[in-house]
């Protein structure tokens, strides 16, 4: 460029060509020398910066390895010092006064399948993404023939997101890939369930506005056909004075669950405000077939799920710390509290707003402070010792 300017000046000058050409050449040489000097000064600085970056990377890898080792040691210590089973010897599970409603109460359950497994440990955790608010639900249909992912964000909403497959849900602009299904009534809490092509959820019955006595209201179960987008059945849940079953999840009053045996509901009432109740539901009619008063405390409970007829309750602290299964209740009586494993969950972000078990995949779909997580479970026979 400098030489081009020099040539232009030479053509325009008319006289003193040699002097001007010498000046241009001198400027070009001076600029080239300055560029070489700058390059020579920068090269050592770049080499130092590269060495410092490598040193920082090595130090970060070392710290990460130490953290992983410490967490493994903590996991080992927690395993060697298990919590006591949540059995209260001063109260009996059976024989107590039952709440008003349908179905047999506190009778041994006759399994309809040959499922006889229990949790051995939480084998792994995979964080998929962050979608929505701190409370919500995401799941698959355990009876469905597709890989659709259902996402229900919030505790009082009426619109569900449906993704064709898990891969579409994990994309950065996931919402664009989703279809939306709007239900005619807003759901309550995070206790919804997708099962057999239907969305089951709880709503406030009509004519029962909120207010000071809202906690004593009953709830209505809705069975919503996801393909036809119509309500096919509804039933008032046969329990009065419902209160949140989980002490750490105040917005949920009925938590629906599915396992190899069918449809279940976890709830609590004012009649026994210290413990959880469990009900077996008919997925066709929403009738309550059986009910149980469990020994599992409400205090510090954050979520629960059912596997092979056994209720597993997950506990945490406030503020959130390390979640753990600390109470189990087998409706068939096969798994005793002494044989039940009480595993910890891997460390994560906050507290579980919902947990959904998928019997086909043997894994949990968890909503944790807006993060969607998959836990893979390791199973063993109920009769095996821990």
Automatic annotation (TrEMBL):
Record family assignment: Belongs to the OLFML3 family.
Protein source organism: Macaca nemestrina (Pig-tailed macaque)
Positions of the UniProt region annotated as Disordered: 1-20
Record keywords, A-Z: Coiled coil, Developmental protein, Disulfide bond, Glycoprotein, Secreted, Signal
Domain Olfactomedin-like intervals: 114-381
Pfam families assigned to the protein according to its UniProt record, in alphabetical order: OLF (PF02191)
Bias kind Polar residues: ranges: 1-10
PROSITE patterns in UniProt: OLF
Coiled-coil ranges per UniProt: 46-80
Listed GO CC annotations: extracellular space
Signal peptide range: none
Native organism taxonomy: Eukaryota, Metazoa, Chordata, Craniata, Vertebrata
Domain of life: Eukaryota
Location within or outside the cell: Secreted
Record-level GO BP terms: signal transduction
Name of the protein described by the UniProt record: Olfactomedin like 3
Database matches in SMART domains: OLF
Transmembrane segments: none
């Amino acid at each position: 460029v400098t030489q081009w300017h020099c040539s232009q000046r030479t053509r325009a000058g008319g006289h003193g060509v040699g002097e001007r050409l010498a000046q241009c050449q001198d400027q070009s040489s001076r600029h080239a020398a300055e560029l070489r000097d700058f390059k020579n000064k920068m090269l050592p600085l770049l080499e130092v910066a590269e060495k410092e970056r490598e040193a920082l990377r090595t130090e970060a890898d070392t710290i990460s390895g130490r953290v992983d080792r410490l967490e493994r040691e903590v996991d080992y210590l927690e395993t060697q010092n298990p919590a006591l089973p949540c059995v209260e010897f001063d109260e009996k599970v059976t024989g107590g006064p039952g709440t008003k409603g349908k179905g047999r109460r506190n009778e041994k359950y006759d399994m309809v399948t040959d499922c006889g497994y229990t949790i051995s440990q939480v084998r792994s955790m995979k964080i998929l993404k962050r979608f929505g608010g701190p409370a919500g639900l995401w799941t698959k249909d355990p009876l469905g023939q597709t890989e659709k992912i259902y996402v229900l964000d919030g505790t009082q909403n009426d619109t569900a997101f449906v993704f064709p497959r898990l891969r579409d849900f994990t994309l950065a602009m996931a919402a664009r890939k989703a279809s939306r299904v709007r239900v005619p009534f807003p759901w309550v809490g995070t206790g919804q369930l997708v099962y057999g092509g239907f969305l089951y959820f709880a709503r406030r019955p009509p004519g029962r506005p909120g207010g000071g006595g809202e906690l004593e209201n009953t709830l209505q179960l809705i069975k919503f056909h996801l393909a036809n987008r119509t309500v096919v059945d509804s039933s008032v849940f046969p329990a009065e004075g419902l209160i949140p079953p989980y002490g750490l999840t105040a917005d949920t009053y009925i938590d629906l669950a599915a396992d190899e045996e069918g449809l279940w509901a976890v709830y609590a009432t004012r009649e026994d405000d210290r413990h959880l109740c469990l009900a077996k539901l008919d997925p066709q009619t929403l009738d309550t077939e059986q009910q149980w008063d469990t020994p599992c405390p409400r205090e510090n409970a954050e979520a629960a799920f059912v596997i092979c007829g056994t209720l597993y309750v997950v506990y945490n602290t406030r503020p959130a710390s390390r979640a753990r299964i600390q109470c189990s209740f087998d409706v068939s009586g096969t798994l005793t509290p002494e044989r039940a494993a009480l595993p910890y969950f891997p460390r994560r972000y906050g507290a579980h707003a919902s947990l959904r078990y998928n019997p086909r995949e043997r894994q949990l779909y968890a909503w944790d402070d807006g993060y969607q997580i998959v836990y893979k479970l390791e199973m063993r026979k109920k009769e095996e010792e821990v």
